[in-house]
TrEMBL record:
Segments crossing the lipid bilayer: 294-312, 324-342, 348-367, 379-395, 401-420
Disordered: region residues: 430-449
Superkingdom assignment: Bacteria
NCBIfam families associated with the record: PRK11715.1-1
Signal peptide: none
InterPro entries: Uncharacterised_IM_CreD (IPR010364)
Protein name (record): Cell envelope integrity protein CreD
Gene behind the chain: creD
Keywords: Membrane, Transmembrane, Transmembrane helix
Organism whose genome encodes this protein: Leclercia tamurae
């Protein structure tokens, strides 16, 4: 407990723990600013439309069925109503998506607009299977459901068997499904099969999904957004992503998804839970996510800096006060605050460069006075800039971040081991003994011999 080395190390650990307080405050500030950005996305969603999931087209037939139950030994007649759905034999969708950014203050959000061309082929033979003495059928209609009806734009439908069909608002089915419906006339249902061709303009924010209701379904989507997030139940069978956008193609059949089973029973399906092709207009790692990841390396940066100062003290004999350690540590914490403030205006990489240079200037001037040399100060500043460069690569290379971080720690440890390989650590651990007072020169005090 009386060893100077013990108290030195304990003091440095105390300084690091003390610096956790401002680091925690900066971390809370990052979360707060990110929540402001998320509020902008919610505002855009409320002002335009939210995520969209396209269900259909499919034929819906209102059915009223009479059935009997014995109650108290009496045959009682009951009625129940439900929707019977006829799914298309084939479904082909071709989409062209345009994504644009909208700004509210200093924050951005994305809105997308998709032009869809839909081809669905139906077999009407299944209508005859529903007819019976106990069943009454209503007028069939085509259902096209969406997640948010506010995003529906222009809609057009081709003629079926020479019949021009009207487009009505609302899905017309039970359950919480927004969309449109198209009443079918008897003339349109005369042929055994018919092909429905329609175009639909759909706008939204976040994800865009299409339920593959066809016995064989295929969707192709072209977009100008270079950061797609392929999610959901089905990945595209092929995709091409470039700086100018992406193109993706999905395929599925009932053999793979058993989607016909979702509509076999007489209960209304849970529309939002049906498996779908899905892609999200994903926001790449923004300045808040990158700054939050960077601050997780702050303790490593501070510890390496303090270790460098400690080795310098050990080798040169120049003593640094704990307050000097603490001030340099605070300048490293300030780096993250400056990075956050600048990244909201100039982007993450320029903000990283500027914050690194600001920290270099501050520490360079301060360390020149502390270390009594511009040369020593310059070496430490270059080392700090080198650590900033390594940290930037750590953030940008997620796949090799562990490898790069391990290499940095190994090099730092090797440098300490190499520089102190001949140092006698016992000399530091022993308390300094007081020097005995010098004996007075009696000869000099004599006035005569």
């Amino acid at each position: 407990m009386k060893s100077p080395l013990f108290w030195k190390v304990s003091t440095l650990l105390g300084c690091i723990l003390l610096l956790l307080v401002p680091l925690f405050m900066v971390g809370n500030l990052i979360s707060e600013r990110e929540s402001y950005r998320n509020e902008v996305e919610n505002t855009l969603r409320q002002s335009t439309s939210g995520p969209q999931q396209l269900v259909g087209p499919l034929i819906a037939i209102p059915v009223t069925e009479i059935y009997y139950k014995f109650e108290e030994e009496k045959k009682i007649e009951h009625k129940r109503s439900y929707m019977h759905f006829i799914l298309p034999e084939s479904l082909l969708i071709d989409g062209n998506q345009h994504v644009e950014s909208r700004s509210i203050g200093i924050y951005d959000g994305q809105i997308w607009n998709t032009d869809l061309k839909i081809k669905a082929q139906f077999n009407t033979d299944k209508l005859g299977q529903l007819k019976g003495e106990t069943m009454t059928l209503g007028q069939p209609f085509i259902v096209v459901g969406v997640g948010d009806a506010r995003g529906i734009g222009a809609v057009s439908v081709s003629k079926i068997n020479g019949e021009t069909l009207s487009i009505e608002p609302g899905s017309g089915v039970y359950g919480a499904l927004s969309g449109i419906h198209i009443p079918l006339t008897d003339k349109a249902l005369e042929p055994k099969t018919f092909l429905l061709e329609m175009s639909l303009n759909l706008a939204g924010t976040g994800s865009f999904a299409v339920v593959p209701v066809g016995r064989n379904s295929e969707m192709t989507l072209n977009s100008n957004w270079p950061h797609p997030g392929f999610m959901g139940n089905y990945l595209p069978v092929k995709h091409d992503i470039s700086a100018s956008g992406f193109q993706a193609n999905w395929k599925s059949s009932w053999f793979a998804n058993n989607l016909g089973g979702w509509f076999d029973d007489r209960e209304t399906p849970e529309w939002s839970a049906i498996p779908a092709f899905s892609v999200t207009v994903a926001t790449p790692a923004d300045q808040y996510q990158l700054t939050d990841r960077a601050i997780k390396y702050a303790i490593l940066l501070i510890a390496l800096t303090f270790m460098a100062f400690f080795v310098f003290e050990t080798l040169t004999g120049l003593r640094l006060h704990p307050m000097q350690y603490l001030l340099v540590g605070l300048s490293l914490v300030l780096f993250y605050l400056v990075l956050l403030a600048l990244s909201e205006h100039v982007g993450f990489t320029p903000a990283w460069i500027i914050a690194s240079l600001v920290g270099a200037v501050m520490n360079g001037i301060y360390l020149q006075a502390v270390l009594k040399s511009w040369k020593r100060s310059g070496m430490f500043v270059l080392a700090l800039l080198g650590l900033d460069v390594v940290m930037w690569f750590l953030l940008r290379s997620e796949d090799s971040a562990l490898l790069l971080g391990s290499a940095v720690l190994a090099l730092a440890l090797f440098a300490v081991m190499y520089l102190t390989r001949h140092f006698d650590w016992y000399s530091l651990s022993q308390p300094k003994r007081p020097q005995p007072p010098a004996e007075p020169d009696t000869e000099a005090m004599r006035l005569w011999k």
